[in-house]
Each structure stands twice: as C-alpha cells, then as structure tokens.
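User: I've been trying to design a sequence by hand for this structure and keep getting stuck. Would you show me what you'd pick, starting by listing the structure so we're on the same page?

Assistant: Good idea, let's start from the same input. This is the structure you sent:
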C-alpha cells in the first residue's frame, strides 16, 4: 500500500520541458490563496469549497491510497462539476485549454474520486485561471463519463507504478534493516546513551530538544541513530540533518556510510549549493545556454529511477555522476531526489529561509519528519540574515540613468525609490545612520510601483546588460517586499549612508518567532551543539516552546587533565591591543619552546591577528628562529576550499618543526575541524571574542534591554564566548588527545565569564 496526494502524483507523471529561470511573472502562495478565496466567494449556496476526497485504487497488484482537496464542487442544473483554480501574474491570453495538461490531470483525479464514492455515471471538470493583479478569469470545461475517468486514472497510475514499487520495496528493506540494527560502536561513550535516549524520547513525544553536548560526545551518531530507530518504529518517515558548514555535512555522510557498513539500508541525499555543483562556467539556468536545463523534466524521471535502483547514499559525487549520465542539472536533480529520500543533508536555509525552503513538503509529510539541527549556535545569526533584507540607492539611480529614453515608466519608479532614499539620507544628518521611528509605508509603496513597472519591461525577454541591471534591481526589491510581510515588533528599519551611497535595511532583531513559524508542522526539532551555552539564551533565541520542549546537557566525556588550561590576564580591549602584542608574542614563543608541537592561535579580528603575526615573524627572523624551529601559517580572509585544505594538511603528527597557525575566532578554522592526536597540541584564544562594536549590535542590545533582558550579554557577551568555546574545542577530540589551552584576557577571571567557562576548563593556572 502507498499513500500519496493527488498533486505530487500527477506532477510526477506529467512534468516535461526545460528549467528556464529567465524572468517570468509568478504569483506567490499568498496571492494564490487570495485568488482562490475570491473565486470561491462567487459560488452559489449549494456549491462546496475545499472538499476533502480520498479513495483506494488498485494498479498492477499495488494499492494506492490517494487523497486531496478540490477547490470547488459546483452543483449545476443537471450535473456536478469539479472546479480547479489556478492563479497567475501572466497574460491569460497566453493560456489555452491545452497549455497545462497537469492541471486537467489533477481536476480529473478529483472528479474520479468523487464519482466513485458517490456512484456517479459522469462528472464535469472545470479549470479556472485567475490573473491576480486584474482579477480577470478564464475557464475551460470538459464532460467526462465515469469509464473515461477510470481509464485516465489507471493510465496515470501505470506510469507512476514503477517508481512507487521502487519506493515500497526500498522502505520494506529499510525497515527490516533497522529492526536488527544495533548501536554501531562497541560501547557508548560517557553520556552518549542518555543523549541518544533523550533524542528518541523527544521524537516519540513530538517535542523539541535543546542539547548542549560537548566535543567528544559523538553528537552525530547520538542524534542519527535514535532517529533511524524512530523511522524503523514507524514514528517518522525521514529526517533532515541541517548544518551551516560543509565539514559537518561530511560528518553526517560518514556516519550514515558507517551505519550502512553495519547493515543499514537507508537512502540519503546531500544538497550542495547551486553555484558549487553547477556543471557550467556560469550559473545561468536557461535552456538555450545550458544543455542540462534544456529538456530536464523530460529526462528526470529516468534519472531518479536509475539512481534509486542502484544507490542509497547519494552524496555530491554520486549525484554529479548520475546527473551527467542523464544530462540533468545536478542541483535540481538533488532537490528532486530529496523528496524521495529517508535522510536529507544540507544547509539550514532549505528549511528556515522563506526565500529558499523546500516548499513541496506538504503538512502531512512534515508531521513525519524530524529536523536534526547541528552546530545550532550558528543558527541565531544565520536566521537574522535569512529574515532581514536590504537594498542600496545606487542600484536604482543606475536603473534611472540607463533606462532614460528607453522606458519612462521604469525611470519614474526608479526615481521615486532613489528620491525617497535621498530624503532619509538628509534626515540622518551628520549621524550617517538612523533607526526609523515608523515603518516606511511610503517607501514600500514606491518599491511595489517599481516592481510592477519592471515586470512589464522584463516580461518582454530582451537581452543585454540593461536587462541584467533591471533584473538585479527587481529581485532586490522583491526580496525586500517579501520580508515586509514578516515585519513586526521584532524588527527595525534603519538607514546608513557613506558619501553618496545609502542603504536601507529591514533588520530582524529577534528571529525566535520566525524560526518557530518556519519549523512549525515538523514532528520534532533537535537543536544540538558543543557550545549551546548558556542554554537559556539559545532556547530564547531559537524559539523554544517553554512548556513542550526539553533541554539536555552533559559534561565532557574526557577527563579534565586531558587539557592543561592557563589564563593570562592581559587586557585585549581595543584600546590596549597595541600594548598587548609583546606579551602575547612572548607567550607564544614560551609555549613553542617548552612544549613543541602544532598550535592554533585564535584572534578576535584579522587586524589584531596580523599585528601579532608581524611581531612574531620578526622575532622568528631574529633571535627566536635559532632557538625554536617553527613553521608559520596565516589565515587569509578569502581562502578557497583548496587553500583551506592545504592549511589543515600542514597539521601533521610527524612534523619536524613546530607549527604556529594564526586564525580568527568564528572563522573557517575555529569550528567543525577535527585535528586528532598530535596533529594539534595546543590552542591559544586571544580575547573574549566580543563582536566589534557596531550600529547593528547596539540596536540588538537596546532591543533586548527594552525586553527586560541583558542586552549587552545578548548582543556581545554570549555570541563572543561562543566563539571562544568553539575555538578551544578544537583541541580535545578523542580520549587519547592531550594538550594545552591558553585564554588570554583578564576578563576570563571575572565572575560573568567564569560562569560561561566549561567545567573542564575551570581547573586553570594563571600565567
């Protein structure tokens, strides 16, 4: 038996054509809902709307439980009619009765389901298209006998059946393998069994979990194993493993690969960013540029069947290989495969970003899905970015200049946007930045006017740099207006200017409400990190349900003597940094002289790092180089993946010289990297990691102060100390690891910061 909704069933069978991301007008979900409601309000008293339908259908010895909700059931004089409503921003004149066979298929399925349940000999079917801007509508009708509907439904299911049988056989094999699957390691680490048990209980109770599980706990297996067991028990059907960094996605892939070696049969798909996985030199998703976009939907079903018949763990390499074989866009192929998989590994934004998320997951599918959110401390600032929007005056000024004499409608609307930004710049005066007292309704209306004028030009599909410029401005304006729909008391609008450039931003201060909203409907959300501390702060910022969600915290599984901790009480405050350089450099050299090995030296900024690095190298070139053999590495702000790998490859156990690697806190080397054993012998963290004082951070501080919380802690202290804990956490990764941690700052000895240090760091000595 297979349960499926009408829409994904007919979309699988009827999809065809090419991926073509050139400009085209489209209606949003909100537009579509409004259009549906307007049509439904015109129904007669005897008509019904949003009618739920469900039936069982046999095809090739498989039973399909098909369900759906038709938009309208109209009671006409001599017959009943199914009404399927579709909204568009395009021109209705371009839509004919034959334009969208998939729409007819959806409507006929509903007609069949109703006719079968009520023993009707015939049904009428209507497609109603609505232009959302003008409210104009256009309809097409067909008359169908029950036999015609029955034949049609069987023909659709015959095409769908091979795919359905593949999924059915896979799930049977999956559940059998899970039933006999044991924890894949010989023993649980300290606290690991309790962590895994907490995850399983959270899923069983349909709750959320906020877990602080220190480095070495084995967080990946501790979350994936109980979730897989929950799939085997029928509690859920799939999980998403979400993270901010590629390296932690690889940890999830390796864990599933390891479990496969222990007998697990489970399908997983890794979604790689479009720009990284694209086969072409430029990421232009147009059929006349990209052969992998041209005819994509004509070939994708064969590609899906092929990969599902032969693979279970579909990582980037596997997806690229099958995409190349079937001439498919690898990014779109990975998204299509994601809807079939038991596990999806990818970035946070596929669930939480309102502009990116996987929108084809129905509410029923969400109820059967668990979200495993790794390195959850990163999600606070990432969410602020997802829920914020900004735009620049220069873009609209350029559009105004370029389109002069070409399209006066576009020029007038671009000028209106530009003029408004000039007006708020003058209001800022000498401050160069200002939080607006009121929501800028006037500005948003100007943007809506620009969007409408730009659409009329862009729909002509002209080529050239001018159109690219207009398209950029259009999408920027669209993104801004889309965030307007989310705007509430947790946002501010602010303006900044530098010389002639003006930036206006809708800034999300507290993302908790929207994270809760975007995660709504999923069975369970498991937030976990080695540095989800203090838990109260992260529960607050990540949108915990105060009554229904659980918390879990375990101490480090490693003995405190594994790491020897020192605190050097220097001032690393901005005003004292130049005076601190000599003392810090001396500490570095003393370490390398007394305890040779591989070290990571972390700093709060690139400028501070370079200042100390310059002095360190200078001493190396003079006296110290003769006393201590050392190689020096320096993190660069724009490192490619290859350069990052080369940087990490220098951390070898058998290095003849010591290694001094300079890096920044919160950067690519301060979390998510595993340098086990003697690959890393010590970590020095310079400063308490406070973000640089800024206009935005101060707005956050003021907001939380007004909410009767400690705004300075929320804006500066907690995010800063999280970077410290992540950087220090690079050192002890296994029970065999030993090393030295040095914390350089006098604030580490104050009560506020002492409370935020992990227990295993509290047996420290003062330098």
């Amino acid at each position: 038996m297979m349960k499926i909704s009408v829409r994904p069933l007919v979309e699988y069978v009827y999809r065809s054509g090419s991926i073509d991301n050139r400009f085209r007008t489209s209606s949003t979900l909100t537009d579509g809902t409004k259009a549906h409601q307007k049509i439904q309000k015109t129904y007669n008293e005897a008509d019904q709307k949003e009618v739920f339908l469900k039936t069982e259908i046999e095809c090739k010895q498989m039973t399909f439980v098909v369900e759906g909700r038709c938009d309208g059931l109209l009671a006409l004089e001599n017959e009943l009619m199914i009404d399927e409503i579709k909204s568009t921003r395009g021109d209705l004149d371009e839509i004919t009765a034959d334009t969208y066979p998939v729409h007819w298929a959806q409507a006929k399925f509903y007609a069949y389901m109703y006719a079968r349940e009520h023993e009707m000999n015939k049904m009428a079917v209507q497609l109603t298209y609505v232009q959302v801007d003008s409210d104009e509508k256009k309809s097409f009708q067909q008359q169908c006998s029950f036999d015609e509907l029955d034949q049609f439904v069987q023909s659709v299911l015959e095409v769908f059946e091979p795919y359905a049988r593949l999924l059915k056989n896979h799930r049977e094999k999956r559940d059998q393998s899970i039933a006999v699957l044991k924890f894949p390691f010989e023993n649980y680490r300290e606290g690991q069994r309790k962590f895994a048990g907490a995850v399983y209980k959270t899923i069983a109770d349909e709750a959320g979990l906020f877990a602080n599980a220190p480095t070495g706990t084995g967080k990946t297996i501790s979350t994936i194993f109980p979730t897989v067991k929950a799939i085997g028990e029928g509690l859920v059907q799939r999980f998403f493993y979400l993270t901010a960094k590629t390296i932690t996605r690889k940890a999830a892939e390796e864990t599933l690969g390891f479990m496969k070696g222990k007998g697990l049969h489970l399908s997983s798909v890794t979604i790689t960013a479009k720009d990284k996985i694209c086969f072409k030199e430029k990421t232009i998703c147009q059929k006349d540029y990209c052969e992998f976009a041209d005819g994509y939907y004509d070939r994708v079903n064969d590609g899906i069947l092929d990969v599902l018949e032969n693979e279970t763990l579909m990582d980037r390499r596997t997806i690229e290989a099958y995409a190349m074989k079937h001439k498919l866009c690898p990014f779109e192929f990975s998204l299509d495969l994601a809807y079939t998989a038991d596990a999806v590994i990818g970035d946070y934004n596929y669930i939480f970003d309102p502009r990116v998320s996987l929108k084809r997951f129905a509410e029923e599918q969400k109820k059967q899905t668990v979200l495993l959110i790794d390195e959850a401390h990163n999600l606070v600032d990432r969410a602020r970015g997802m829920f914020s929007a900004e735009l620049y005056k220069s873009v609209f000024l350029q559009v105004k200049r370029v389109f002069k004499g070409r399209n006066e409608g576009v020029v007038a609307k671009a000028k209106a946007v530009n003029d408004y930004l000039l007006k708020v710049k003058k209001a800022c005066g000498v401050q160069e930045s200002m939080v607006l007292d009121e929501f800028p309704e006037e500005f948003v209306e100007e943007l809506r006017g620009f969007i409408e004028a730009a659409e009329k030009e862009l729909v002509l599909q002209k080529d050239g740099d001018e159109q690219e410029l207009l398209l950029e401005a259009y999408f920027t304006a669209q993104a801004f207006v889309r965030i307007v729909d989310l705007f509430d008391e947790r946002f501010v609008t602010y303006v900044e200017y530098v010389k002639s450039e003006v930036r206006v931003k809708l800034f999300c201060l507290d993302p908790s409400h929207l994270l809760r909203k975007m995660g709504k409907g999923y069975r369970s959300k498991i937030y976990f990190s080695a540095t989800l501390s203090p838990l109260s702060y992260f529960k607050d910022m990540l949108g915990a349900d105060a009554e229904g969600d659980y918390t879990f915290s375990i101490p480090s599984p490693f003995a405190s003597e594994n790491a020897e901790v020192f605190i050097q009480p220097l001032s690393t405050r901005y005003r004292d940094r130049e005076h601190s350089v000599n003392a810090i450099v001396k500490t570095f050299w003393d370490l390398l002289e007394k305890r040779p090995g591989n070290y990571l030296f972390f700093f709060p900024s690139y400028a501070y790092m370079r200042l100390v690095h310059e002095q360190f190298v200078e001493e190396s070139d003079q006296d110290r180089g003769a006393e201590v053999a050392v190689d020096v590495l320096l993190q660069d702000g724009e490192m490619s993946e290859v350069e990052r790998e080369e940087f990490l490859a220098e951390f070898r156990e058998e290095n003849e010289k010591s290694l001094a690697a300079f890096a920044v806190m919160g950067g690519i080397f301060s979390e998510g990297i595993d340098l086990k054993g003697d690959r890393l012998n010590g970590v020095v963290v310079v400063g308490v990691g406070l973000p640089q004082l800024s206009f935005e951070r101060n707005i956050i501080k003021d907001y939380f102060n007004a909410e009767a919380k400690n705004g300075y802690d929320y804006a500066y202290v907690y995010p800063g100390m999280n970077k410290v804990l992540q950087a220090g956490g690079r050192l002890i990764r296994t029970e065999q690891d030993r090393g030295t941690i040095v914390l350089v700052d006098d604030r580490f000895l104050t009560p506020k910061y002492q409370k935020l240090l992990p227990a295993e760091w509290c047996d420290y000595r003062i330098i």
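That's my pick for every position. To get oriented when you compare it with your attempt: The radius of gyration is 29 Å. Residues 308 and 428 are 59 Å apart (CA to CA).
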